[in-house]
User: Fold these one by one.
Assistant:
Number 1:
Amino acid sequence: MKPLDRMTRDWSGGCWRSVLTALLVIAVLSPLKAQESAEAEDPWGDEAWGDDPWTGEKAGWQWYGFIDGATASRIHDDPAVGDDYTLNETRLQLEGERPIGDYTATVKADVWIDGVEDGVRGDLREAALAGRLTERMDIDVGRQILTWGTGDLVFLNDLFPKDYVSFFSGRDDEYLKAPADALRLSWFGDVNVDFVWMPRAAPNRYITGERLSYFSVVEGRRVAAPPEIDPRERDSLGRDSEVALRVYQTIDSVEYAGYAYHGYDNQPSAVDPSTGEAYSPRLTSLGASLRRPVLGGIGNLETAYYSGEDSSGDDPNLPNDQWRFLGGFENEPFADFTLGWQYLLEWTRDHDALVANLPAAQRPYAPDEYRHLLTNRITWQLLRQDLTLSLFTFYSPSDADYYLRPRAIYRFSDQLTGTAGGNLFGGADDWTFHTQLEDNSNLYLRLRYSF
Amino acid sequence: MKHFLPLTWLVVAGLVAGTASAQMTDPEQIVEEANIASYYAGDDGRSAARMLIVDGNDNRQRRQFTLLRKDVVEGGDQRYLVVFSRPADIRGTVFRVEKHVGESDDRWLYLPALDLVKRIAAGDKRTSFVGSHFFYEDISGRGTEEDEHTLIDTTDEYYVIESTPKDPDQVEFARYRTWIDRETMLPMRTEYQRDAGEVYRRMEVTEVETIDGYPTGTEVRMEDLDSGGYTVTQFRFSEYDVGLPDRIFSERSLRNPPRDWLRRD
């Protein structure tokens, strides 16, 4: 826990500014009293039947969105990052939708005042046109969020971009998925096929040291920016393109899927020995999954083989090939109480060659040949689902580290939602996946007004 | 208790209403017909729905959705697609159900912000449907074979059925009573009781319209007598036998809802 003087500084300092700003905006936007008196006359408020987007097909843009304020405070001092907060922002998200013939155009953009990176930031999350191309084919073209696979916050065949910086620093789950510029074609028949083409590589929004500290194998300690990790971009249209394929079908309640991907690693996992520059190496993957009801719950199995540029595993500047296996089970033992369990194995191939070719100083940080990860999700809904308590736990017995995500969400009304939670990292060795993030452990608070 | 209706009245009523107004005495048959009338009108159906959820402190929430339903077997398996349009934070969420009578349903949820197709464990059907006072089971029906049914009264208007669960551990009630309209076979009121006979939950149909020849409850109120909270659900723009194709009850409709079929004419 923080010493008292740190705590008092928080209260007097800018920590609550984001939440207060949001509160102020909400107060202006939400004339509750007026709403209540209007409701006495019409209990449905302004909800005329005619404005249902599905039934009263309307021309022109429909706008939705939210404004929220969020702050996430580190629970330890981070010697590498001179900021007590991983998050401190007031954010506006606007989402527009309009029919264009038989198609739907969607735009979703975020603008926020960022107290950690000091400035106004923006992010275009969606700008796409989607619809039915033929009786059997759908198209979705433009900037979009893409997801597939059976894991719960664990991804094997989903090699679409993630934003772990947002995820770890206390933003909403929605921000774990980063947008990709893509053409998605979906064919529906005896077997369904999804084909996704990304004209330029869509990497993760990975940790650069800007907001979060991480472990540097070169320096042998936890570091942060400056210098920021600045890998070589893969942004040449066409030449740096990626494709992803899914073939799937449900037969008698069992969901079968096969996957293929040919593109680049989402992380800058390779180093150019001549310049010392990091870059995303080639990555090809093949996989399969199965999801079905079992023992009164849902069970899933998934596997993927990652094949990279270093087939013999003896180049220390390139990641080795990997097999990944996932097994999961989720059920509802009591009403409104769900429990989920997952086991993930990451099997690094040619492990001996990898270790043998690493510089002696980096050998301790080499990945284990077998990395085991267990996850558990507990979700408990109370007060007729107005309150959701949850805890997601990542625990790796082989890395001896953990990552806890406790969270409480309270729905004050259809417009106003409050969230309190944490991202807590820890473990034995500074260089493992979760332990390296220990100094970024944070508790966050968010208040959101949706409109 | 027995009621003897004049024969002439029966004949006239039968001719006018065209429904089976003849007095039924078999509770299983009454319950079966009520189930068909409530949940199986036509071979398929489409309706817009909105809910007003009021808790014991008079806090109000709303839900609005379009419901598509298709029967696989009359009185048996069904397929549902529920597309939410309100409130803002639930908009675009799609819920798909393959209802299996006598075994667990298959349920999927699509969360648009994450482009995530989540499969939901069948779990407890007697939990709140999207935060309302209605349970999943109230929306899609409770298997008639799950309870023992007794006809405890027949009035001029209603058959009164008392039902007790065959597996009491699976449910929160000790028994429930249903008032079934003899004319339409629609359950107009259901009261759920605890062991001592105390009523803690009440469903009432407050509006009925005949749509495409099927009497339909177009306003239904569910009260939680413990908290004083209640939910009113209104159905509008209901249509039956619209010819919904099987293929729209699929993963395709989660990411890209079938606009042609959701749109009201």
Number 2:
Amino acid sequence: MSIFIPEKHWWRDPLDKDEKVWLAIALTTSIVLTLAMPWWHVTQKQNPSSEYYKIKPETFDAATDRFIQEFGEKDESGAIKQEGGIDVVAPPAGDIFVRGQQFKWSPVLKLKKGAAYRIHLSSIDVLHGFSVQPINMNFEAVPGYDYVLKVTPTTSGVFNIVCNEFCGIGHHTMVGRIYVD
Amino acid sequence: MEAVFRTCPVTGLKVERNAETLVMFNAVTSIVFLLVGGLLALLLLLTRWQAVHLLPADFFYRLLTLHGIAMLVAWIVFFEMAVLYFASAILLNTRLSVPYLAWGQYGLMVIGAAITAVTILLGKADVMFTSYVPLQAHHMYYFGIILFAVGAILGVCVFFATLGAARAEKTYVGSVPLVTFGAIAAAIIALLTLAHGAIVFIPTWLWALGIIPMMDPEVYRVLFWGFGHSTQQINVAAMISCWYLLGTLTVGSVPVSEKFSRSAFTLYVLFICIASEHHLLVDPGISTAHKEWNTGYFMHLAVLASMMHAFSVPAAVEVAQRKKGYTKGLFEWLKRAPWGDPGFSSMVFSVVGFGFLGGITGVIYGTEQLNIIVHNTLRVPGHFHATVVIGTTMAFMGITYYVLPLIFRREVMFPGIAKLQPYVFGIGMFVFSTAMMFVGGFGIPRRIWDITGAEAPFPVAYGPTADLALAVMAVGGLLAIVGGGMYILVAVATVAIGKKINR
Ligand SMILES: [Cu+2]
């Protein structure tokens, strides 16, 4: 019994045929599962990026501001247009910036279908969760790290960036936006 | 100190008074925290059910933090201390070594848990169970957790000291029983885990006090999960020990092969602690090769161990049942199993829920590419409510129905309610966890007060199917809360006013 001292030495206790068969099945499953990730990584297209750079939050903040100044959509008076109180940016293909902070994603992005972007994702205060809905793609925004996501939009439409890493009492008010056309 | 023993008439085990008292204190305290966590669960559930949306935002986040601490830390670790003392002193027919250290364990854990809980309730630690830096809690929050962890380390030391004393005093010969072996695996993992806990929480506490600068947020995440995920592996090892224990207590099962079961426990010790990077699959700061090596190779050797137990626990029950003469067809042994024994039905729910619902989804969600659609959505708590609640919690609930007569020496009150309890709780939790994972599939985040974006610059909608699934999740959750209440009612009533068994 499981609660008493084993009668004979357990190490010499031979395995049954059933146990050997099950062990073989379980081991095969484990090996297949172990190989699945690298196999997928090499042969398929949707993988988390492993490109990242250490960056000071102030530096990232300033880089995002420059990005907004350079590619911001301007109205007749020359001021940058806003939506929901957030600057709107229509950048060309290439490097773009997404900045998380309590409790705002900025800027609002207007992207082109088929154009290849490199999203620089980071936070300037606490952790945030970069969750693009409704396509449901989720990445972590970590202060001190510039996380580069290579993205080419394949469908046009309206997408929300929902924050899904708890970042303070206003967490649920942290919704940003991406337009693709 | 003179050791005082009595002999248990059911199992024939010698039970020492100190060991018995400490098992009782830890078990009762754990149930108090289960009650607190359960009441919080009700409030949180009624808030996440968007149609009801009960609590205001700040209370929701505050109580969610406390729910995590009360359930995942206090309820489970207090109960595990009871399991460790039981598996060492009582199963080895010996006295509890250094009982004053064991009281130190109890005292520190109670004080630590109380400090952390009060700090949260005062609104000084709205940081969630994970307390990721740079989000900062009041320094007393971390201090309480450190005290609690030191208490738990003392408990593990008492466990090993008792094993050593039993061996030195020759209260047994040969190998320790399988349940004790499993508890040793849990205790070794606990020591490794608590070391990670110290590495992560002591500097964070000093940072909160303003003494040292903040840890790098990504380093914190790596170290935190070295602690946070590995603590779940203590639970797994303790839970599986409880499966073997319940198999023996309910149907008299004998492990089919001691070697098979013990090798599986050894695999946990060797591999499971390191496989914590599946929390960080969509993080910067860690290379793909590192992520895949860690979550692939190491994790699946632990998965192998779980698959081995998933075979040997039911096999042991089947062999025991067939020996009793239930040999007709393939499944008479199962049909004639003691389904009315809450210890047995809890074990079955625990095995099936942990294995099929929690384990399989865990393996899937821990795949690098799939994690992109899983990370921080409700799929994650859906998965771990299956492992920790249906798995660990139901195993501990099942054990309680035997601890009450054997250790507290009282007849279980309300046997009718006790008989139904695992079904109400188990079915409720199955519906709740499954629905939660389904809801997460729509991309709905975990740990969020409002999913409509009502106070955000842009509205968010997940569609009517998601709303319906949230309602199903709520119904399952409410059923589970009723089942949890039944468990607490039976346990508390038995301890307080149950008929004494005179032996
Ligand atoms: Cu946020």
